[in-house]
Design goal:
Length: 317
């Protein structure tokens, strides 16, 4: 990109490409002090000149409330204009608006249509989104084979979510022959990019010896990485590792800590185990009232063990 002074002169003279690029500089703080208001101003001027990336960026400003009040209706309007002109990221983001019902009426059919247009242009995020729609039958008829096809296209571009989802397809045998080896391969690629669910899934593979040699130390490491990103199932499994001393030294206090984290996210298994800790005084001071509290929370979330524990203690749900 040109130096900022040259870029500014061109932008002031009405060059729409320069105006869009100057807006990007202000948005990212490249060569100038970051200023969302200035970014929005220059994107808007470029958009008036018909610059399609700028039109999309105006939509982004409205979507996230950068330099202008957040307004999903306005965001969708600008996305629509850019998407209708073939801008792949705008097509994907308009699909997301339809999927979530932000600024437009919620419609999986419309979401799938826009994801498909972006995916056909090779936009990796849209390819993953379209794969997910085929996997779950949203807006299209469920088709695991097409789900795998789109996940592969996205995964081969390095999209971590698609790599993880493709790993799940191989682990379950959805759309492909079941292969734990292939599942581990794709989980590993996503985990290396810091994808929390993939780290958890790969941890389970090491924990139970699926596609790799069983290794509790590696499972613990991966659960820990995912747990620290807030992934509830990983927090629960990490707590189990501490409670059982698998892959690490036994530490009931740490087990309680991670059960608590997962429980706060509503994971019933963790809530039940946290109740057990309070009932037995493992890693925490024995407290029957707290045990009952967590058993009830778990029971309300459908945990049968928690319901049985409450019955044994003479309590009702």
């Amino acid at each position: 990109m040109e130096d900022i002074l040259t870029l500014a002169r061109k932008a002031i003279s009405g060059d729409a490409i320069a105006q869009c690029n100057l807006g990007l500089c202000y948005e990212q703080g490249n060569g100038v002090r970051q200023d969302y208001n200035e970014a929005f101003k220059w994107y808007s001027l470029a958009a008036q000149g018909g610059n399609i990336p700028a039109i999309f960026n105006v939509g982004l400003c409205y979507y996230y409330g950068r330099g202008v009040a957040k307004n999903y209706n306005e965001a969708a309007k600008w996305y629509q204009y850019a998407a209708s002109n073939g801008f792949a990221r705008a097509q994907n983001d308009l699909g997301l608006c339809y999927e979530q019902g932000k600024g437009v009426p919620q419609s999986y059919f419309e979401a799938a249509r826009w994801y498909s247009l972006a995916a056909q242009q090779g936009y990796a995020i849209a390819q993953c989104n379209l794969g997910s729609f085929y996997e779950n039958g949203r807006g299209v008829e469920r088709n695991y084979y097409l789900a795998v096809e789109w996940y592969k296209r996205s995964a081969n571009q390095g999209n971590a979510r698609a790599q993880n989802n493709l790993g799940v397809c191989y682990e379950k045998g959805n759309g492909v022959p079941k292969s734990y080896f292939e599942a581990v391969k794709w989980y590993s690629l996503a985990a290396q990019q810091g994808h929390a669910q993939a780290q958890y899934n790969l941890g389970c593979c090491y924990d139970f010896g699926k596609g790799v040699m069983k290794n509790h130390y590696e499972a613990f490491r991966l659960y820990d990485l995912a747990a620290r990103q807030g992934y509830a199932k990983a927090q629960y499994n990490l707590a189990l590792c501490y409670a059982d001393g698998e892959g690490t030294s036994q530490n009931y206090a740490q087990a309680v800590y991670w059960y608590q984290k997962a429980s706060e996210q509503g994971l019933a298994m963790a809530q039940c185990n946290l109740g057990v800790c309070y009932e037995n005084g493992n890693g925490v001071r024995k407290d029957l009232s707290m045990a009952v509290y967590w058993y009830r929370m778990a029971a309300q979330n459908g945990d049968q063990t928690a319901k049985e524990n409450l019955r044994k203690l003479g309590y009702r749900l």
